[in-house]
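Backbone shapes recur. Consider a single case.
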Amino acid sequence: MSEIKITELLAELTLEEKATLCTGKDFWHLHGVERLNLPSIMVTDGPHGLRKQAGKGDHVGLNAAVKATCFPTASGLAASWNLPLIEQMGMALGKECRAENVSALLGPGTNIKRNPLGGRNFEYFSEDPFLAGELSSAWIKGVQSQEVGTSLKHFAVNNHEHCRMTVDAVVDQRTLREIYLPAFEKAVKNTQPWSIMCSYNKVNGTYASEHKQLLDDILVNEWGFEGIVVTDWGANNDRVEGIKNGQHLEMPSSGQLNTQKIIAAVNNGTLSMEALDRSVGRVLELIIKSRDALQSDPVQVDLQDHHQLASTIAQETCVLLKNDGLLPVTTGKKVAVIGALANNTRYQGAGSSKINPFTLEQPLDEIKKQFGAENVSYTLGYHLNDAHDANEISKAVTLAEQADVVLLFAGLTPKYESEGFDRQHLNLPQVQLDLIHALGEQLAKTVVILQNGAPVLLPFANQTAAILEAYLGGQAGASAVAKVLSGKVNPSGKLAETFPAHLDDVPSQPYFPGTSKQVQYREAIWVGYRYFDTSNTPVLFPFGHGLSYTTFDYSNLQMKGGAQTISLGENDTLTLAVTITNTGKRAGAEVVQCYVGQTSPSQPRPAKELKAFSKVFLEAGESKEIELALDYRAFAYWHTENPAWVAESGEYLIQIGASVADIRQTATLTLDTGIPRQATNEALSTYFEPAKRDFHDVAFSALLGYDIPTATPLIPYTLNSTLGDIAETTLGKPYFETMIDTFTNMMGGDKNDSAAEADRLMAAAMVNDMPLRNLPIFNAAHYSEQEILNLVSCLNNQSEA
């Protein structure tokens, strides 16, 4: 966008118009300026489909949204490891946005899966920042190719739902740089998303919506971000401080509340016109880019074509976790399908990403198509409302005894995982476990098909013949599963997250999700496979794992150029080559994964870190040489004292494999980077031994570089006290109950009992965590800011009395 054009527009705008442009017009629209031909543009939720709200549009109910294509959620997408396919999905999403005059889709979700209990993990890609960054880039590239903006979210360190609106995430700078920021960095540098959505939480004491280090120093000055920073809905804390520190747009509308604060701050000199113009200028750029698309010819969308794309994607999201030879199921077999989820499929997550699909497949129907209706029998097995039913279990056992093959559908219903609240455990619903236990000897001919957005414990894994992780496969996930089960499709998905053997094995578990006011990231860099692999902790299924109906051989790993000692500067790249051969009798795809580790590090470092990958499709007997590129950052860690990426000269191990635990080819490489081995901080000695998990106060303080901060006290009450904080007080209880009613109505729309229960749980969690400052935003008809200030004053006087 021409700087002259923006400068001219800024000169035409009044102070009132500038202040108004910095906040939403309503729940989904930005303000425009009609006299300057600046339209009011619409943004709306994704990320795995278009969720355009009809009518008033300030709710997250399913039935009120326009019909759209529901693709697999991010946890499944990540398992595909297929960047071109995800880019195609992004293009389809962009076209559907264009057809509905939506200018920006709010996604992708890029936050790291710090702990498998995270309630929104289904909406995020991976525990690994390199993989998450590559997948995010592909998604953004696809959407924005259609002249539709994206909103990379949630920036940053938003890794759980409990008290997410006010909690302070305490994390050291090295961990921030190596784990929680790189996926955002890669997406920004590769694709320039039109916007980035800042998270609700604080990061090291400062709200993300006004965090100078994150928004200004890193995002703009270091990474060169050119778009706008928009708040998550209700994430604004102090509007003027936000503008000063790199937040450009507040969503949703705050009416005149924050507009008047901006005007007053300019008039009294606490906010410069230069700072306001920086924010307004970026909002203008977004509106102008969107205007060009809105004024172009209408876009026609073939939803049936998008359904076929959704099916293709869902096929590659299926991860074959175990197979004792039962799969694929041959034709002519008597197939027993068991499980309520087979006929009432769980195909997406709960919360703001809920899509209203224009069509929806059911697994039972698709299995009948693959194997013949005459060969397929079905029984419920369990109830989705978790009611115990001995009769249903008995019917399931009888049906299984009469079958050649049992296809058992299990998974998590919406009340177990949703935006707004975190999971309480990793177990499947007890009614499902009771059913599986009752099947006993029949498990030897049973395939368990999982429908879930995140890892679950599988105590029956050693008894059942096969396990297929289908994730939340979208509207076409059922046919994808049926084709994989029949062998019409060869599974090629690989886990983008670790399935732990026990919840207590997760290194962040002692600190997750923290208290209502603070969460300490004491485990530091030891997240996901970085911990499990380095500490040799057994897992249920490792990162990168996924089986096929064929086999692959890895051979001839070599460095292009052949040298074993290589000079490497910050702008240099190494190229590796490895030959992959399909040694089976079926065509298939393999995800070739490249891990790098320093053999004798001066700092705590994982034994392996994913630094390159490639998905290769091979016919039976076919071989291909795959090239993988490694840059300077592939060997570097973040040096905190002298802030920079540092790759020490020395020996590194290059490991190529089918998973982090299945390494097929290894090479040792000596690098000359000109940087000698750095000094070791003895205070961090415990972080060299992650298996002990002795991340005590002294070590964590040394990691932070300062004393561990004290959590914000509950009293005195402030505008950032939550409704949950005051719910049991005489003055606060009416406010809490009123907002429960408001948010329950906002969640309305679903008839499914399980989904409705999840909506109620989400509403309760969101209200419980809502800061008092947001009452005038989400219920302006009832509350003014002055009333809430008076409430805070009365609460404090009451507590003092």
